[in-house]
């Protein structure tokens, strides 16, 4: 678990990585500036929001990199590599709030009947990954809360994110994994960092 000081460091690091990349065109090496916790392998996502709207979100669901490396890469990719949005420019960054989600390792949800999936999911805690026929979609834990979704809607929307039909989860071919996350966000662009509550 990260404490608030760690969370603030994570968000500030993400902003610094984006600023450096946009100004200098190079990925900064910030690994010497962080505590040992950031050198552990963790899944991480960086989300950019502008005026309450999504502006970019990229990350790594699996602990395949150290937290610091995944954080820097995800931040730069969220700003410049999300195919849904044009690249952020340096002037625009002052209007963007940054959110960092540090993930637990995803675990497969085992059910005998697909209709039982909602019983294994807690909207105030879990993020989901849907996998089917080479397709994959992920939604972070804060997404269903922000949209006030039920478990069924959460399952359907994760399927849609994977390019599947909303009812695909009922057909028995979709495999789901769940994970939880600690989420730290700026209260305003470059402002105070708080830990997002899921209750």
UniProtKB/TrEMBL annotation:
- Residues forming the AMMECR1 domain are 5-195
Q: Per UniProt, what is one Pfam family of this protein?
A: AMMECR1
Xref: NCBIfam families? AmmeMemoSam_A, TIGR00296 family protein
Give the top-rank taxon of the lineage listed in the UniProt record for this protein: Archaea
This chain's source organism reads candidate division MSBL1 archaeon SCGC-AAA259B11
Q: Which InterPro entries match?
A: AMMECR1, AMMECR1_dom_sf, AMMECR1_domain, AMMECR1_N, AmmeMemoSam_A, Uncharacterised_MJ0810
- Indicate what this protein is called per its UniProt record: Protein AKJ61_04610
């Amino acid at each position: 678990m990260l404490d608030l000081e760690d969370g603030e460091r994570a968000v500030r690091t993400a902003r610094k990585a984006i600023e450096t990349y946009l100004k200098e065109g190079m990925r900064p090496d910030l690994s010497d500036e962080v505590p040992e916790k950031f050198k552990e392998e963790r899944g991480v996502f960086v989300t950019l929001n502008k005026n309450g709207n999504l502006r970019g979100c990229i990350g790594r669901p699996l602990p395949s990199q150290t937290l610091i490396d995944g954080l820097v890469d995800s931040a730069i990719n969220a700003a410049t590599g999300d195919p849904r949005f044009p690249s952020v420019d340096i002037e625009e960054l002052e209007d963007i709030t940054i959110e960092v989600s540090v993930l637990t390792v995803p675990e497969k949800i085992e059910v005998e009947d697909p209709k039982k999936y909602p019983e294994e999911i807690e909207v105030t805690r879990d993020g989901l990954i849907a996998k089917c026929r080479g397709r994959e979609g992920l939604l972070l834990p804060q997404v269903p809360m922000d949209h006030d979704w039920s478990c069924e809607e959460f399952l359907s929307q994760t399927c849609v994110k994977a390019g599947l039909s909303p009812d695909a989860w009922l057909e028995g071919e979709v495999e789901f994994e769940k994970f939880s996350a600690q989420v730290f966000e700026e209260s305003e662009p470059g402002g105070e960092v708080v830990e997002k509550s899921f209750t």
